[in-house]
């Protein structure tokens, strides 16, 4: 973890070609605020595509094509070029990620930021999301999705999982592991002990069925974590949790499924949040939005999420 204190390069996978990601990235890099500092920026993607969008969004710094991260130059936009063959975007994105993972395995001083992907085409139902894809490719057993905002962050126990499978996938072990990982991440990286709230699965944490996930799974998990001196409380009813009093009191909210915590967070903070994967051999961040191909090249997209990502890196 100490190596993260000397991060000197940001490796950026541009991902989906027809996405708003490069637009928001260039808006961030064009900002008058010196967000990047002394870190070297390396884009992994198609040089022609990047050059074209750089021109469209008025990015004027020199582009430097490299094959090795060691040759990256501060103050220039360094690019590791990946060809797009026969418009095969799935293969192109896969090659971008494979190249990046190979680089990251050899240097923990590099952090990964990836643009969004069209899950239907790239992941092809083989993985629930990029979180699970990266975990598989790096042999990481327990990846945790943390949607980070400086005011309050959220984490779903199950990620991009259809709602009908959620109750079958939650258990005491996974809840304990995930919360323990988040607790340790905050202590080691952000240097403080977080106050964590856990939501129930059922409306008002009640059920008419004989099986109560709150009673049989969530409450025992919370009791176990309290014995480990983790600051955790719950379960709370999800419908009334996200009020100002609770937002001011807690640092992280754990939900049982994706939309239970992502919907209120995005309602409160729009795109001022980032997706952090805990449990990988490197720090991975992605903006908290999708490709949004309908807005491609329209110059109307909000760069808040990528700015949040850079600010987070500066903080650690």
Description of the molecule:
This protein is of the alpha/beta class and 316 residues long. The protein is built from 11 helices and 12 strands. The protein folds into 2 domains: 1-140 and 280-316, 3-Layer(aba) Sandwich (Isopropylmalate Dehydrogenase); 142-275, Isopropylmalate Dehydrogenase. The chain has helices spanning 21-29, 47-56, 89-105, 119-122, 130-137, 166-169, 172-190, 213-227, 244-249, 258-269, 304-315, and strands spanning 9-13, 40-45, 63-65, 77-81, 110-114, 144-148, 153-156, 196-199, 232-236, 252-255, 274-278, 284-287. The strands form 2 sheets. The protein has an 8-stranded mixed β-sheet with strand order 3-4-2-1-5-12-11-6. The chain has a 4-stranded parallel β-sheet with strand order 7-10-8-9, with helices on both faces. The longest helix is centred in the middle third of the chain and has 19 residues, at 172-190. It is elongated. The mean pLDDT is 91.
């Amino acid at each position: 973890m100490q190596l993260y204190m000397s991060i000197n390069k940001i490796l950026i996978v541009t991902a989906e070609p027809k996405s708003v990601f490069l637009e928001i990235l260039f808006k961030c890099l064009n900002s008058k605020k010196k967000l990047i500092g002394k870190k070297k920026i390396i884009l992994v993607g198609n040089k022609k595509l990047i050059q074209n969008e750089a021109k469209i969004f008025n990015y004027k710094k020199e582009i430097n094509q490299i094959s090795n991260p060691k040759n990256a130059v501060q103050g220039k936009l360094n690019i590791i070029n990946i060809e797009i063959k026969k418009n095969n975007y799935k293969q192109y994105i896969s090659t971008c990620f494979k190249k990046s993972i190979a680089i990251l395995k050899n240097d923990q001083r590099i952090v990964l930021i990836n643009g969004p992907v069209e899950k239907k085409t790239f992941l092809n139902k083989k993985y629930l999301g990029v979180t699970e894809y990266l975990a598989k490719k790096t042999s990481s057993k327990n990846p945790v999705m943390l949607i980070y905002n400086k005011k309050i962050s959220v984490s779903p126990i199950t990620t991009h999982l259809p709602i009908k499978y959620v109750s079958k996938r939650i258990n005491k072990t996974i809840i304990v592991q995930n919360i323990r990982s988040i607790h340790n991440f905050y202590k080691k990286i952000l240097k403080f002990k977080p106050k964590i709230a856990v939501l129930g699965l059922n409306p008002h944490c009640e059920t008419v069925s004989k099986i109560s996930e709150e009673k049989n799974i969530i409450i025992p998990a919370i009791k176990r974590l309290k014995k480990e001196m983790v600051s955790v409380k719950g379960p709370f009813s999800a419908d009334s949790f996200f009020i100002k009093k609770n937002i001011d009191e807690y640092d992280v909210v754990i939900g049982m499924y994706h939309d239970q915590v992502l919907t209120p967070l995005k309602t409160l903070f729009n795109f001022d949040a980032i997706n952090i994967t805990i449990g990988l051999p490197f720090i991975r961040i992605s903006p908290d939005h999708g490709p949004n191909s309908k807005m491609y090249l329209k110059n109307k997209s909000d760069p808040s999420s990528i700015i949040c990502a850079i600010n987070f890196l500066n903080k650690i």
